[in-house]
Design goal:
The protein folds into 2 domains: 31 residues, no CATH class; 129 residues, Orthogonal Bundle (Globin-like). The chain has 164 residues and is mainly α. It has 8 helices and no strands.
Amino acid sequence: MSVVRDLILQADDQLRYPTSGELRSIVEFLGGGERRLSVVRVLTANEKRIVDEAARQLFSRKPEYVAPGGNAYGQKQRAQCLRDFSWYLRLVTYGVLAGSTENIQKIGLEGAREMYNSLGVPMPGMVESIRCLKEASIALLTTDQAALTAPYFDFLIQGMQTTT
């Protein structure tokens, strides 16, 4: 769930106190808290803007998705697509906040395989949508914030690529 929790559980599993290196990792993690919070604030405050831009990018790159027969054709399907964009953006913010990809893995990837396969949603389209979401998000962040955030999107993209 988070770096702190993981280090404590690891030490406890081994019936020992955290090492000085582990304690330094905790201090570094806690010291970066404001930096992580600043990313979460930007992404949260701009959710609609990010989702709208990501959708614009995706549907201009892949117009067949909104054409008759496409997975985002019609108001209901498009709304569900945008809902998923918001959901994945929220998962990325959880990852940034916790300093961990655990929730992205458990909720965003394992759950996605089952859900999208059962709905017949092609994973390459989801991969492209997350790329668009990443681009729209990164455009609103500083270079430092983008460097902190990009790996969480990349983890999600890589995980979705392995499910295709």
